[in-house]
Amino acid sequence: MADPTWRIRSDAKRQAILDAIPQKWRLTEPVPPPTEVRDVTGSYICKYLDAQEIEITESDAVDIAAKTTTGQWSAVKVTEAFCHRAALAHQLVSCLHEIFFDAAIEDAKKLDQYFAEHKAPIGPLHGLPVSLKDQFHVKGVETTMGYVGWINTFQGIPNDPRRGTEESELVRELRSLGAVLYCKTSVPATLMSGETVNNIIGYTWNPKNRLLSCGGSSGGEGALLALRGSPVGFGSDIGGSIRIPAGFNFLYGLRPSSGRIPYQGVANSMDGQNSLLSVLGPLAPTARSLTFVFKSVLSTEPWFHDPLVLELPWRDVMVDQTRELIQKSKDSTSLAFGIMYYDGFARIHPPIHRGMKLVEQTLKRLGHTVIPWTPPSHAKAHDLASEIYGMDGGVDLRHHFGLSGEEQAPQVIVDQDGVEMKASAIAQLNIAKREYQKEYMDYWNSTAQLTGTGRPVDGFICPIAPHAAVIPQQYRHVGYSSFVDVLDYPSVTIPVTHANKSVDVRPANAPAASLEPHVEWDYDADTYDGAPVAVQLVGRRLQEEKMLTLAEYIGEEIARELKK
Amino acid sequence: MADPTWRIRSDAKRQAILDAIPQKWRLTEPVPPPTEVRDVTGSYICKYLDAQEIEITESDAVDIAAKTTTGQWSAVKVTEAFCHRAALAHQLVSCLHEIFFDAAIEDAKKLDQYFAEHKAPIGPLHGLPVSLKDQFHVKGVETTMGYVGWINTFQGIPNDPRRGTEESELVRELRSLGAVLYCKTSVPATLMSGETVNNIIGYTWNPKNRLLSCGGSSGGEGALLALRGSPVGFGSDIGGSIRIPAGFNFLYGLRPSSGRIPYQGVANSMDGQNSLLSVLGPLAPTARSLTFVFKSVLSTEPWFHDPLVLELPWRDVMVDQTRELIQKSKDSTSLAFGIMYYDGFARIHPPIHRGMKLVEQTLKRLGHTVIPWTPPSHAKAHDLASEIYGMDGGVDLRHHFGLSGEEQAPQVIVDQDGVEMKASAIAQLNIAKREYQKEYMDYWNSTAQLTGTGRPVDGFICPIAPHAAVIPQQYRHVGYSSFVDVLDYPSVTIPVTHANKSVDVRPANAPAASLEPHVEWDYDADTYDGAPVAVQLVGRRLQEEKMLTLAEYIGEEIARELKK
């Protein structure tokens, strides 16, 4: 039986991506199955790289920019090293949708020429490669967002003049700051999934444990960054899509409040749904890399170029105030945190529990107050998010899958055959959401009575998911991440440790999988072994500067705790 | 034929409002018809007041607070003076929905006791009376919003525990700042009208010319403030509802961007519609009064109490930067403004044209650059706003009118029998609105090429309506105000002059009324004689500090220009 037409197109596209990898960077031997080699990060991928490439690609964005903005490393050298490593990454875990290394190297040459001429960088990101989730439009590059029906079109529209000419606002800003763009990373078609799978590139695996998912929907970013095929990338988050892949790949990831990073000109699912906005944010191996690119983007004054961005420049004063609170460690007016192990829905797996305990221990060792976080019902937040995701009854998804006739992956959390809501019902939903946000805010304020610092908690710690990087098709509850989007709070993923089958054992009284609705107990110590474990630090709306400062501090102190 | 039940209820409510006025403050003689006495402001209303009451009520909010926060005037004395004048105002033009003078005087007594005890005020608004549009909930006071069906209920819900106990967040904040609340002002039922008319209090007339409307929907505020029955009040704006009554009553009025003043807990029409948000803002006879109360409200950190408010404290730095630009007057890098006389829809009447010319002249005399403002189609903005206002097909209006069976006034710009939009159509509308906002933003940026200052314009000047305070039922085009809400820009109404039948004559070539769609040419020099003329100063999103600073400066300079 012949393949349907869409398979021919998706096969061709998949092959075209591979063909964009220069011959010299192609793997000549087959990649061993995950049952033989689970982890392809670190020494595995490094065997294909030379010492200088390793030095460059294992530096973080801050260190790289320190060298590329001062002429110590040429932009071309750095770009080539990341292109090479990204090419390897894609061949190992299938994490790229678009490869445009030639254009990147041309851009890098121009940057080097600029530097040679002016003895100064173009901007703070001069010569820094930045990867982008395949929602961003880049001139001369396709955007499929994982839809077969988008191949050779502009967002599914054939013969649209914007095809190949459009550039997203953030892309323009990154270029103006000196960044080099070289690849776009894989996503689940629809973006509405905690795994990354589509009919073009297939499944993006977790590089640390190839039995598991890289997460989603910014899953390609997560996998590429875990393999150090990129120093920093941008993803999007409407239910956890930055924080999940960050957490599943031992990365930091920032989900900012809406209105800080420009979404202007970026492709999206269910665009125009404005009850709960998707937001863009960075992922990187170090917290300071997030701060660096976030601050750099704000320096371009995006509020004059995207009508939904707020005129809110980077606030050093908020950083200073946070640092003062950190300094006060052990003082009764120092930092206070909430901590939540259970959202009332899904019990967390042993590795996540251990990670949470480690963070709690670390904060207490530092003399900060830690109180139990017992907020308004997260089940309510979960319901609100689900209703909003399904608001259009699947019209958008149906349309985009329908362009090619391709199938929808089972991991997508939105149905194609829902009921489309009407204006008055949407208004009621918006009110319910606002009332929930108010209730949560009042709860937050009420913790001033409990912290002993005279203030409410400065932030709170909770899991990102019930499990570490998940077994395919076992991601059943996104409520640990989606409630943050309902509240529009900033949240930073903080990597903590790795699942360890010898210590993270299933307790005797653990509930059986799927016995109760939303109970998440299909824990398998052996399969999860080695998977990254992370938590998230959640802050008050628009306090990105405070959360980034705290995330860097807490991350460093966790590392210290682990060395004890 | 007997009146339907709702008339009995509305009559009783109207009478109850009048009955709340103490006997000593009731007018004993009938008010002469407007054909005899058009203007009941100034000397007309003052004949019922003693010298001290006049001194107090003709001071602005800043001067009043300077005396009440230092013990020079007692809160009781000030409150009584405004209660008296508000009582007169209501009897002259029917501008109040709720009168709670007794509670206000009790509150004022407590403030005086506090001051006597602490030798310090409770807050910056200590002892300052503040009037509120009848959307705000105040403990112990009803909210009808002009709906007969809301009498004896909470927002139309009978036996709701919130009835009489609820207080809006802004009300709480005003109290915490020391403000005294004493009355709520009239609105058109639905709030969707540029005139103020409902089946409870009837029609609110313009105190300066009682042949004309006071504007709407914050019309009661406009009328009360014009009569100095209040030093400052709060209204709301989704299509011009603060700026129209401000302009029609020779007042300053601020429509801030959404997210600065808390709407939490305030009744609304079509609540939950979040494609275009209604916003709250102050109206007052002086620009500095707006700044004073706006800044005071921000000092309460409303972002910790309303989830939709942005953490954006009052920015003195933006005020200072603006003042520096003002100082540079005559310098090529000083201020630059756009000016727009015609929106492509409705030609403005002669008084408005003269007012606009006066402002242009003033700016040029001061050495500032003035360029023609030729933005993207305002017809498009008008269409977007209309589609959004009608999004629910009238479900909300039908419900609230249906509670009593009362009739909808012809001035309401939303139909009860429209078609309710579905989620996917709303999403498309949201996209169209965002694209329009982007197009307008790009146009604004492009003026950097034209100003000669090296920057785009600092703001632009345009009419608020084609006409001065309007002849009843002749308000045909709200596009001059509603485009600002579509863009979510801050805008300040600046009063300029008054219509004058001897100079503002109908030009020979003026189009006849209603010959073309949207042409607004039913100008009648005699009827409009004496009506206030105003313009609006529109700024970039969230630049309220800059616009308030400029409005104060421009207003003062216009006064100087008129004295020449």
Summarize the entry for a quick read.
Chains A, B: Its EC number is 3.5.1.4. 2 copies of one chain form a homodimer. By secondary structure, chain A is an alpha/beta fold.
The largest chain-to-chain contact, stated as pair and per-chain residue counts, equals:
A-B, 45 and 45 residues
User: How much helix, percentage-wise, in residues of chain A?
Assistant: 25-40%
Work out the oligomeric state of the chains in this entry: homodimer
CATH superfamily of the largest domain in chain A: Amidase signature (AS) domain
CATH architecture of the largest domain in chain A: Alpha-Beta Complex
Strand content of chain A: 5-15%
User: Which topology of the largest domain in chain A does CATH recognise?
Assistant: Amidase signature (AS) enzymes
Domain Amidase (chains A, B): 78-548
Keywords (chains A, B): Hydrolase
Pfam family, one (chains A, B): Amidase
InterPro entries (chains A, B): Amidase_CS (IPR020556), Amidase_dom (IPR023631), AS_sf (IPR036928)
Structure description:
2 copies of one chain form a homodimer. Chain A is α/β, with parallel strands linked by helices. Chain A has 2 domains: 5-26 and 40-304, Alpha-Beta Complex (Amidase signature (AS) enzymes), CATH 3.90.1300; 317-490 and 498-563, Amidase signature (AS) domain (Amidase signature (AS) enzymes). Chain A has helices at residues 5-19, 43-46, 51-57, 61-68, 75-93, 101-118, 169-176, 219-226, 243-248, 287-298, 316-327, 350-365, 378-389, 395-402, 423-446, 448-451, 479-487, 525-528, 544-563, and strands spanning 96-99, 129-133, 180-185, 197-198, 202-203, 233-237, 252-255, 279-284, 336-339, 369-372, 459-462, 491-498, 532-538. An 11-stranded mixed β-sheet of chain A has the order 1-3-2-6-8-7-12-13-11-9-10, with helices on both faces. A two-stranded antiparallel ribbon of chain A has the order 4-5. The longest helix of chain A is centred in the last third of the chain and has 24 residues, at 423-446. The first copy, chain A, is globular, with a radius of gyration of 22 Å. Chains A and B meet through α15 of A and α15 of B.
